[in-house]
Backbone:
């Protein structure tokens, strides 16, 4: 009765996703805290294979993720808490290709699913840590048993109910397999903004290896170095960026300030002369910088 | 009640790079072109959104000591998402069984579990 037409294959046509599995440590569920335990499991995984140390205790993770009256964790808070724990939270593209390319790279992912229907939603976060191609089952730490196999068909329906929401949590320096450069840089910048500048620099440097043609990374790196007062590294990075963007107003502005900080106002002013922008806000910024440099 | 502390941290974050004697460093945000906090108008609306989220967290029983920390760690985009619709956003949390479901719902979901359309109960084994 429930033949092939009842269940259309949810996987994209013609794709073969190979079997794989990761040793993601299992943590037993605690009421309303699957957001916290999911982060813990992924953190333990990265701790077990690399140079990553979580920044938060289990109690802190629980406290940060739980909203008592909602009985769970918002997606945004899952991501912000993972960042506070020192991980980059990269939003997964909502499709099977992205999911399986992360799994193939041995990056566990956390997905949001609705275990029920929209009229009685039971939202749940699950870490996915493997795939069994022969039996077409995802391996997940779904509930109270590790590596619970989940039929692709069932999984696809539950995942679809969250619009295929997921996130890849990675330690500094590791790049998502499915990443686009700009989206990744934004995810890292969110880490930088909460003060983890050293960690962010590590990831920007990896990004430069992965996307050497993306000159923006030099600018972003330069700003981070500047923030840490590593001025000679900042200068070198601004100059590298300017090689491919010679009249870029933001970089010229920042380099001019850096030069004036190190007693080279004249060179700074000459650089400002070459800056081109039609944006009135940026013109104003350049003018301010010029005035400051002239005061020296 | 959160306003004063949050105002201070907001001002700090705005002035972080604006070292008066050196001119203003153009932020990474400007280059990445994310649609957030560039003009002062945006900064004010961000501030209001953060206050809204803090209030909503308080109403939803979040430990008052945690509220500031939680709000501060959210990015501008995340705050904007939450501020307008926290009531309807999904919150993943169900780690075990459901309590208080009506018998009707129980039976329906039991059947859909067995058919492999849902996975509400941990004891069911789907036919798939």
Residues:
């Amino acid at each position: 009765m429930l033949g092939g037409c009842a269940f259309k294959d949810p996987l994209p046509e013609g794709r073969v996703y190979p079997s794989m599995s990761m040793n993601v440590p299992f943590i037993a569920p605690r009421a309303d805290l699957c957001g916290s335990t999911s982060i813990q499991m992924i953190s333990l995984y990265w701790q077990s294979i690399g140079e990553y140390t979580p920044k938060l205790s289990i109690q802190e993770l629980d406290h940060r993720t739980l909203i008592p009256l909602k009985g769970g964790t918002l997606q945004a808070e899952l991501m912000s808490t993972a960042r506070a724990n020192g991980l980059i939270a990269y939003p997964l593209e909502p499709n099977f290709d992205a999911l399986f390319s992360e799994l193939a790279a041995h990056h566990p992912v956390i997905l949001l699913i609705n275990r029920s229907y929209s009229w009685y939603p039971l939202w749940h976060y699950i870490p996915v840590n493997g795939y069994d191609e022969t039996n077409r089952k995802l391996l997940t730490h779904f509930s109270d048993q590790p590596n619970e196999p989940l039929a692709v068909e069932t999984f696809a329906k539950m995942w679809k109910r969250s619009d295929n929401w997921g996130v890849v949590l990675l330690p500094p320096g590791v790049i998502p397999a499915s990443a686009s450069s700009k989206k990744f840089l934004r995810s890292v910048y969110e880490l930088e903004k909460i003060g983890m500048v050293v960690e962010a620099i590590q990831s920007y440097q990896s990004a430069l290896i992965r996307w050497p043609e993306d000159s923006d990374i030099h600018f972003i790196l330069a700003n981070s170095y500047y923030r840490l007062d590593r001025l000679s590294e900042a200068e070198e990075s601004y100059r590298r960026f300017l090689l491919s963007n010679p009249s870029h107003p933001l970089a010229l502005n920042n380099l001019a300030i850096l030069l004036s900080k190190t007693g080279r106002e004249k060179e700074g002013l000459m650089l400002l002369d070459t800056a081109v922008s039609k944006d009135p806000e940026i013109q104003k910024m350049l003018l301010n910088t010029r005035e400051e440099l002239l005061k020296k | 009640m959160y306003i004063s502390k949050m105002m201070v941290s907001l001002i700090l974050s705005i002035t972080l790079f604006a070292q008066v004697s050196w001119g203003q460093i153009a932020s990474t945000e400007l280059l990445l072109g994310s649609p957030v906090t560039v003009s002062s108008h945006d900064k004010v609306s961000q501030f209001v959104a953060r206050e809204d989220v803090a209030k909503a967290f308080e109403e939803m029983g979040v430990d008052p000591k945690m509220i500031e920390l939680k709000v501060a760690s959210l990015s501008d985009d995340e705050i904007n998402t939450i501020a307008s619709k926290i009531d309807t956003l999904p919150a993943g949390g169900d780690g075990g069984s459901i309590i208080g479901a009506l018998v009707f719902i129980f039976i329906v979901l039991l059947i859909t579990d067995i058919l492999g359309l849902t996975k509400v109960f941990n004891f069911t084994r789907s036919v798939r």
In short: Confidence is low (pLDDT under 50) at residues 14-21 of chain B.
